[in-house]
Each structure stands twice: as C-alpha cells, then as structure tokens.
Design a protein that fits this description.
- The protein is built from 15 helices and 3 strands.
- The protein has 2 domains: about 140 residues, no CATH class; about 150 residues, no CATH class.
- The chain is about 70% helix and about 5% strand.
- The chain is globular and about 70 Å long.
- The protein starts with a helix and ends with a helix.
- A 3-stranded antiparallel beta sheet has the order 1-2-3, with helices on one face.
- The chain has about 300 residues and is mainly alpha-helical.
C-alpha cells in the first residue's frame, strides 16, 4: 500500500469508524427487510446477484480510496434530506402505500435502505467524496430486486430476441425452420423458447461484468456506454446461439441434449463465449482510449 493510500485511510479513520457503525445500526434497524432480501436472492435465479453487490461496492471503494476519500467533510443538509427521504419512503411502503402485485414492497423497502446508507456516506464524508465515489455507491442500486411486472417484461424481451436470433441462425446454417410465436420447428423436433430459456440470469451477469469492466478500464464516457449496450445486445445473441446449438445437437447427435446437463447447466459456457466475443472490442476500446492518469494507474 502506498504512503498516500495509507494517509487517506488513517486520516479518515474516525469517519470510517462512524460510517461502519452507522451501517451496522441501520442494518439492524432494517433487519427484516435485509433478511427478506437475502432469502429472495437465494430463492430467485434472476436475483441471485443481489447478495454479491454490496461486497463489490466495498471492493470498488477500497480500490478507488485515494480518489474517493481525498477530500472529506460532513454534508449535513444533503445527508439528512436523503435520510429523511429514505425513512419516509420506507414508512409509506410498510403502510401499503404501494399496494401492487408482485414484489413491489420488497423493491421499495430495499431502495429505502439504500437511500439511508448513501445518506450516511454523505454525513460522514461529504458531497465531494460522494461525487468521487458515485459509481460504487450507485452500483448498490443493483441490490433492488426488479418488480415482477418489470422483470416479466425483460424476460419477454429476451424470449422474443432469442427466438428471432435462433430463427436467423437456423437459416444461416441451412436448417429448414418454421416459427410460430416462441415455437421453432426444425426437422425432427419442435422447441419452445420458454421463460426458463430466456437466460435472464446470465444476461444480468453479463451486464454487471460489462459495467464493471467499462468503469475500471475505459475512460471515455461514450465508449463505456457503447460497451455496456453491446453487452446487453450480445446477451440475446449468445442465448440464440445456445438455443440453436442445443437443438442441432439433439437432432444430429443425441435427443438428450435438450434435457441434459448442457441444457440445464450450460449457461456458463455460453456466458464465456459472449465474453470472448466482447474481448476484441474491449481491447480495442481500452487501447484507443485516452492515456491513464496517475490515479487510474495506481488503482
């Protein structure tokens, strides 16, 4: 650890201790919400990433500590206002002000907790530090589970996109195919691109991976945006490749491929394929980007 980083940590030791105490106390206060959030994350594939998000944010704050904690001061007005906003939102949610179907209550309660945590950061470190650490702090918003109505629309979009890509790939490889909604018929088998085939879990993982890579290694705003959007598009393409590959293997090799291990657990293989497809683009963007600052090189 460099002498500058050591000074940043030791010089703010009292603020760090107060902030940690604030997080512990607020977590105990919102214990029921956080317990429900953890249970939801462990039970729902589309939200399995949630329990990892706070650890990633802590890691990012540590990596960027020289920049984030270079200037620290208390921002009472901003911190108190944001804390009150979070508390009021939590109170309204628990009073069924958001009486919606699905998991709206959990989503709004989680958002309330995050607002209180960020308010604690403002109170301890100030607005300048918040601006410097905006990415790892706002990254915490990925802890908010998507309401069912939004999640279902995202899954539907992935289903539609994956079906279209699969249909095009079948044509490109010369396999006769007919399409009826989410049903694809090729000689010997008819498959349905169901919700379970939407690959929502690996798509979210790919999105988070691209988001982190863009933040840590790219410095031009438009390149960051393009890379993340490209990752979202490629999540649909790789799922189309997955569906096509499994279907062709079932037709020409073994029908068991449609229900075997590659079908159930092969998402990671095609996730790696998507990363390999993104790698040349990422390397070009990183190489052609503006030179690193000394702070970036240190991080």
């Amino acid at each position: 650890m460099s002498s500058t980083a050591t000074r940043v940590l030791t010089g703010n030791s009292r603020r760090h201790a107060i902030f940690v105490a604030f997080i512990v106390i607020s977590s105990l206060t919102f214990y029921k919400t956080l317990r429900a959030l953890i249970q939801y994350s462990l039970a729902t594939d589309s939200s399995s990433h949630i329990i990892l998000i706070p650890f990633i944010s802590i890691f990012l704050l540590y990596v960027e500590r020289q920049k984030v904690f270079a200037i620290t001061r208390t921002s009472v007005a901003s911190g108190v206002t944001l804390a009150l906003t979070g508390i009021i939102l939590y109170w309204l949610t628990t009073r069924s002000a958001f009486a919606q179907e699905g998991n709206w209550h959990l989503s709004m309660e989680t958002l309330s907790v995050l607002l209180v945590w960020i308010a604690g950061f403002l109170l301890c470190y100030g607005f300048v530090a918040f601006r410097a650490g905006a990415f790892p702090l706002l990254f915490l918003l990925l802890m908010v589970p998507l309401p069912d109505v939004i999640l279902n629309r995202a899954i539907y979009a992935l289903q539609a996109g994956s079906t279209e890509i699969s249909y095009l790939i079948f044509h490109l490889v010369g396999t006769p195919v007919s399409r009826h909604g989410f049903l694809l018929s090729v000689p010997g088998v008819t498959i349905e691109v169901a919700k379970e085939c939407s690959s929502i879990r690996s798509s979210i993982a790919l999105f988070i991976t691209c988001l982190l890579a863009a933040h840590l290694y790219l410095r031009t705003a438009w390149k960051k945006l393009v890379f993340v959007v490209l990752g979202l598009l490629l999540s649909v393409v790789k799922n189309g490749i997955r569906i096509t590959t499994l279907t062709l293997l079932s037709v020409y090799v073994d029908p068991g491929f449609l229900s075997g291990r590659l079908h159930r657990q092969g998402g990671f293989v095609f996730f790696l394929l998507a990363l390999l497809l993104l790698l040349p683009v990422f390397l070009w963007m990183e190489k052609s980007d503006k030179p690193r600052t000394p702070e970036d090189s240190a991080a």
